[in-house]
Amino acid sequence: MVLIQIFLVFTIIAALIAVEAPSALSSIISLGAVGFGLSISFLWLGAPDIAITQVVVEIITLVILIRATIGKGVTEIRGNESKPLLIGSLILFGLGSAFFANYLSAFPDFGKSAVDVFTETPSQFYLEFGLEKAGGPNVVNDILLDFRAYDTLGEATVLFAAILGAITLLNKKVFFGKGGEK
Amino acid sequence: MSGMSPIVKTVTRWVSPFILAFGIYVALTGHLTPGGGFPGGVIIAGCFILLMLAHGKEKVYGIFNLKSASVTDSLASLSFLCMGLLGYVFGGGFLNNFIQSGFPGKVFGLLSGGNMPIINIAIGFKVGGSLFVVFAYLALFRAIEED
């Protein structure tokens, strides 16, 4: 359990470096460190599906970010910090912390399965009848593709819409820039 | 994007079939072992992105160009939706696992889990195609900016 906490502290430090780093390249590399720290934490907490997805997506995101942003054409945006903005964000942070502290006791202990704590939930049903009703030994995919397949369809639709929007925006540049493909 | 040095090209040529096979394996056996359609599709897209970075885009477009990638993406989404509608027709509910209730298959076998492997393959194709399209467009965008 101590190892996971060390990795979480490492992740938080890497996230802070990613925000504050002076150049885009070091920022992106720190972002990669955040993702890998998270995926190792997921692996230790017993969620190999999420760990695999996190590692793979992290690598692809890193490659795409470096390929698309490093070089010229990266504009740095620096806003001036105004006093009302600072006070407002502090108030919001305090409110969020208060709510979080209020409900912190309802969460299960760190690294403990929620199934052991909350017994009258659908997750108990999924674990008991996953193999019988959906037919797959991997209960995560039973939930994703059988019990909660509608969610997965929605997720696929969101991905489709996001890709469509990205292509439309980028295509405009390609068409009206200095002559692209087609 | 004309490609990298001969060392990188040779290593990529050796490694990329294994990456592709691993992606297909992760997507195919998602109902048995950790993995599934999403990571499998991302690994497949990663194989093509690796080839594109090492060999330049012309060589990859000979295998898998933008149009075929977007057609793959759309067809895979459509087949996912069709599985849902078939569940409505045969199983009595949208996305019902009608193959599992009809032909259960051997537990721990590759052909078990009803329509879960089919949906996993569809998601794998969908994610692979769409991520490849995004990377290709971003690379194209940058190549034009650099002119």
Could you give the topology of this structure?
The complex is a heterodimer of chains A (182) and B (147).
Chain A: H1 2-20, H2 24-44, H3 48-69, H4 83-103, H5 114-117, H6 122-134, H7 139-147, H8 149-176
Helix pairs in contact in A: 1-2, 2-3, 6-7, 7-8
Chain B: H1 6-28, H2 37-55, H3 57-63, H4 66-90, H5 98-102, H6 116-146
Structural class by helix and strand composition of chain B: mainly alpha
Termini gap of chain B: 12 Å
Helix/strand order of chain A, N-terminal first: HHHHHHHH
State the helicity of chain A in percent bands.
over 70%
- Helix fraction of chain B by DSSP (H/I, runs of at least 4): over 70%
Morphology call of chain B: elongated
Report the sheet-strand fraction of chain B.
Answer: under 5%
What is the rounded Rg of chain B? 18 Å
Q: State mean pLDDT of chain A (0 to 100 scale).
A: 84
Number of helices, counting only DSSP H or I runs of 4 residues or more of chain B = 6
Structural class by secondary-structure content of chain A: mainly alpha
Number of extended strands of chain B: 0
Quaternary state of the chains: heterodimer
Largest interface here, residues on each chain? A-B, 48 and 56 residues
Radius of gyration of chain A: 22 Å
Helical stretch count of chain A? 8
Give the integer mean of the pLDDT values of chain B: 87
Low-confidence stretches of chain A: none
Number of strands of chain A: 0
Distance between the termini of chain A: 56 Å
Mass-distribution shape of chain A:
globular
